[in-house]
Amino acid sequence: MTTIAGASANFTRDLDQNYALISALADEARSIGVDFLALPEAAIGGYLSSLGDHGDTVKNTTRSLPPAISLDGPELKKVQAIVGDLVVAIGFCELAEDGETRYNAAALLDGGQIYGSYRKVHQPLGENMSYSAGSTYPVSDTPVGRIGLQICYDKAFPEAARIMALDGAEIIASLSAWPAARTQTAENLQDDRWTYRFNQFDIARALDNQVFWVAANQSGTFGSLRYVGNAKVVDPGGNILATTLLGSGIASAEVDIEGTFRQMRAGMFHLRDRRPDVYGPVGAPDDAETAKWRGLVHARS
């Protein structure tokens, strides 16, 4: 059996606060036997303080941007020292090898090794003004199993999870700084339409691909953003096994990865029964041929 967990917590620009919070979450995770813990997007240095036309950008300010760190820098080494033998996914702002380019990134690590890293591919609401986009979805072997990473808005794109499932991912960790709606926000954030979407995406992506899905999210507030928490563990049948709802904390579940896969994939063959021969336009660039295909679809409808 393996215990997997996602955290909901509030991370800021204060790195000392971040390390203390990571330490507290790691201690709590160890106390309940967690083997793999997903921490939120931007758990080192916090996320952007706003999104949209007035969001933080490299062009108009550097004061409110998260610190940019390298994969081999002291910040991740500090995290490794904190987590020890606990396998952790953690989000941060990555500084590329050129010393200038920034990525919204995540790393998969424990105290002895960085197993893999990921640079966010899909960028919402002007995030491209602060970060460059990644272009791959790697899957990494770890002591817990084969794990894929994605960040926040990625979960709205079925292709992002599917490509990792096809690469053998058993667990997909979705790290977020997912806020409530910017307009007509619900009084109770659990009823907010963006909370609903966050939760539905988690369920759908787990069920689509028959994988274990671990969602981590920021909680509380930062700048103009109000986060919706709802860290959770979802099984390959789309069942929520544990959730924090709006609160901070850890959602954990003890699972039998091999046994669950054998059971869930014995009757429904979502990966086996695909028809890639008819999906061509889904992966096609936005060229004339794709436009022609879209025109035919619209004409038929």
UniProtKB/TrEMBL annotation:
This protein's record includes keyword Hydrolase: yes
Domain of life: Bacteria
UniProt xrefs under SUPFAM superfamilies: Carbon-nitrogen hydrolase (SSF56317)
Alphabetized GO MF terms: hydrolase activity, acting on carbon-nitrogen (but not peptide) bonds, in linear amides
Domain CN hydrolase, chain residue ranges per copy: 1-257
Record-linked InterPro entries: Aliph_Amidase/BUP (IPR050345), C-N_Hydrolase (IPR003010), C-N_Hydrolase_sf (IPR036526)
Keywords from the UniProt entry: Hydrolase
Full protein name: Apolipoprotein N-acyltransferase
